[in-house]
Design goal:
By secondary structure, the chain is of the alpha+beta class. The protein folds into three domains: 4-103, Rossmann fold (3-Layer(aba) Sandwich), CATH 3.40.50; 132-201, Dna Ligase, domain 1 (2-Layer Sandwich), CATH 3.30.1490; 207-444, ATP-grasp fold, B domain (D-amino Acid Aminotransferase, Chain A, domain 1). 34% of the residues lie in helices and 25% in strands. An eight-stranded antiparallel beta sheet has the order 13-12-9-10-11-14-19-17, sandwiched between helices. The chain is globular. This is biotin carboxylase.
Length: 445
Amino acid sequence: MIESLLVANRGEIARRIIRTAKRLGVRAIAVHSEADAELPFVVEADEAVCIGPANPALSYRNTEAILAAAKSTGAQAIHPGYGFLSENADFARTVEASGLVWVGPGADAISAMGDKINARNLMAAAGVPVAPGTTEPAADLAAAVAAAAEIGYPVMVKAAAGGGGMGMGVAADEAALRTEYDKVRAFAERMFGDGSVLLERYFPRVRHVEVQILGLADGRVVALGERECSVQRRNQKLVEESPSPAVSPELRSRLLAAAIRAGEAVNYRNAGTVECLLDPTTGEFFFLEMNTRLQVEHPVTELVYGVDLVEEQLRVAAGLAPTFDPDALTPRGHAIELRINAEDPKRFLPGPGAIKTWVEPTGDGVRVDSGYVEGNTVTPFYDSLMAKLIVSADTRAEAIERAKSAVASFELAGPKNNLPFFAELLENQEFGSGDYDTGIVSRMR
């Protein structure tokens, strides 16, 4: 096993990785910005290094500062968490070239999946279903208009280098396409340094279902079930659950087989997620993207399969076998995750601030992965995620009831927060039925 691990991230996910590292006897090293000096992940690490000011470009995305911290602390490996540099192939290559262990997939796999057009083409060649769309970037507006006419409206306009729900727009006709194309291209150039744009068929009623994969040290790729991620605002997830209430055993078999083929197509190692769009009417699914990292929502898979995915990541990176039998993976029960964000529960606009009260719910089947404690301040410099409330039970109905109780007992004051939204959602008949899609939040508003 790796002996010392630098966590190149912050907040909730850094704290969560550190927890597993310390349980395994691995020396945990935190890096942090000046703004995060008082957060729990810094306090709980065995060692911590300040790597720069609040601006992520000067701290959490600062490759030189992170590598210098690794060298000064004698770190053996680097875990990037999610976001920041986690899907940066150049960073992965630099880490390995520096003689450190990279706790993630190989740089080539990151590169292959980082370009959405290249990823689509690779998946199609591997026999993974893809939605009708472009096989190369739309070079200009005229090319986009021609492609949309062939695909058929409505179309999704997407940044080829984007991810995490960013850099997307929907065009119902040519007039809208002209607006969305320019908007997405400008956003992509500003955010990703790459203005390439692709077009795909847009499905007005669709579910977002993803499969957790793990590329093992021996070369095999295994799938640890699916997660339902259709409760979203601005194309970004708010709630995830496993298993998906929309997936039958027959569909699950097809989904998992396709996800394994996707991983095998790029010789995938370590944890990753194959995201798909599911047409609830026909049962057809289409490849959306592959996230070459640990996902925010990984805890629901952990609770259903009884594994610690961070531990499995470390074992793969160290060349060790998994803790479980890949041929005997058995899911049990149901798990739901709610993302507790510092945001207005109606319009979902960020609302940072000092935390005056923070009392987490407890009890059987209740888990809270948090990045803050009472007295901390949620700053405007980073993502609004404060904590993840995860519940598990034998059935979905029982998990929903447990989630209602946990939300009601979560005491949080100071920053704006979306707990009232979750209280509303958990009473919503559409959500309760399990027959919902990505439009559920807009219908609630």
